[in-house]
Write a structure and sequence with these properties.
CATH superfamily of one domain: Ribosomal protein L1/L10, rRNA-binding domain
CATH class of one domain: Alpha Beta
Helix content: 25-40%
Number of helices: 11
CATH architecture of one domain: 2-Layer Sandwich
Strand content: 15-25%
Structural class: alpha/beta
Strand order of the largest sheet: 3-12-11-4-10-9-5
Shape: flat
Largest sheet: 7 strands, mixed
């Protein structure tokens, strides 16, 4: 009996050996348990990939486009030209406003008192490769007031009777203390119905519970909505214009800020634009040279946008005399060759 079992096992081994010669899949061990044959596949060295820490997904790299200086110098001779063969034309602010006024005539868009916006493209890159400037929200009081067709709703947190009376007189939507805080936290007052939250310093500890609710609108001294002077805060946030810097990508931000109406004087509109620059420049990294990379004037509902000459309206784009001399020398060398 034992001899028969041994012969059977030998035949099985020979059959497996013959399979090894035919098939690339081999069996390392053969076991018999309860009269059944069990095959075990050979073990292979484990890949080390699973022990390697996965790399974080990289940020979008800024595409650096090569600028052809000769192409930028090309100027069309005629009134009609093929756009792809010439750089996009840039205007002065007065010329851009004049063109929008022509489009707004009663015979066309009939929008002679329409709003004018300054549209800016910002470079949001910092000195650190993986760190970018966050989007921001600012309010500025322009030197020449105009109706921007919006009504700001303001909540003022104060305690004294004089501050409460002043806030109500100037047009604050909500005025109060602890009870007002409780209504905002519980949702009795919808946080989205309030555009600005103003607070006096003595009430700062009281309004802390609304911080996770209102988030970026929470009163801070650097934003101007935390101040002892209730009148100054209300003048800024009721009469000023509010604009946002919206991130299009990690390294590109967009701003659209109203700077006047088409029936205002050109000098007044330009003065309003200049009042925006110091507010925006608070977010400029120290080593960034060209913070604003593009500037244009738009006037909805017109689809036209007119680019402005950056060197005339944006700090950091002034052409240095040395660079001008180098360009002249390059032109001379090219002409001689």
């Amino acid at each position: 009996m034992a001899a028969l079992m041994l012969q059977k096992a030998i035949r099985q081994c020979m059959r497996v050996r013959s399979l090894e010669l035919i098939s690339p899949v081999t069996c390392q061990q053969i076991r018999f348990k309860s009269g059944k044959q069990r095959l075990k596949a050979p073990s292979h060295a484990q890949s080390k990939d699973k022990y390697v820490r996965r790399q974080k997904k990289g940020f979008l790299e800024k595409k650096v486009e090569k600028v052809d200086k000769d192409f930028l110098k090309k100027v069309p001779v005629d009134d009609v030209w093929i756009r792809k063969y010439y750089p996009e034309r840039r205007y002065s602010m007065a010329d851009a406003i004049h063109k929008h006024r022509e489009l707004a005539q009663p015979e066309m868009l009939n929008n002679m008192d329409g709003l004018i916006y300054a549209e800016m493209t910002l470079d949001m890159i910092t000195t650190k490769k993986a760190k970018f400037i966050k989007g921001f929200r600012e309010t500025v009081l322009l030197p020449h007031q105009f109706d921007d067709q919006t009504q700001q709703k303001v909540a003022v947190f104060c305690e004294t009777d004089s501050d409460i009376a002043l806030a109500k007189e100037m047009g604050a939507t909500y005025v109060g203390g602890r009870e007002l805080v409780k209504e905002i936290v519980t949702g009795a007052i919808n946080k989205d119905d309030i555009d600005h939250y103003l607070c006096v310093p003595d009430m700062l500890n009281t309004v802390i519970p609304i911080r996770p609710v209102v988030r970026e609108k929470f009163p801070l001294k650097v934003k101007g909505n935390l101040n002892e002077d209730v009148k100054a805060m209300l003048e800024l946030f009721l009469k000023g214009i509010t604009f946002n810097c919206v991130k299009e990508t990690d390294y590109i931000g967009k701003i659209q800020a109203p700077i006047g109406t088409l029936n205002m004087k050109d000098e007044e509109i330009e003065a309003n634009y200049k009042a925006l620059i110091p507010v925006i420049w608070k977010y400029k990294p120290q080593k960034t040279v060209h913070f604003v990379t593009e500037l244009s004037i738009i006037a909805p509902p017109s689809d036209e946008r007119f680019l402005l000459q950056l060197e005339d309206y944006v700090p950091g784009h002034e052409k240095q005399e040395d660079e001008q001399e180098l360009d002249d020398e390059e032109d001379k060398m090219a002409a001689t060759n």
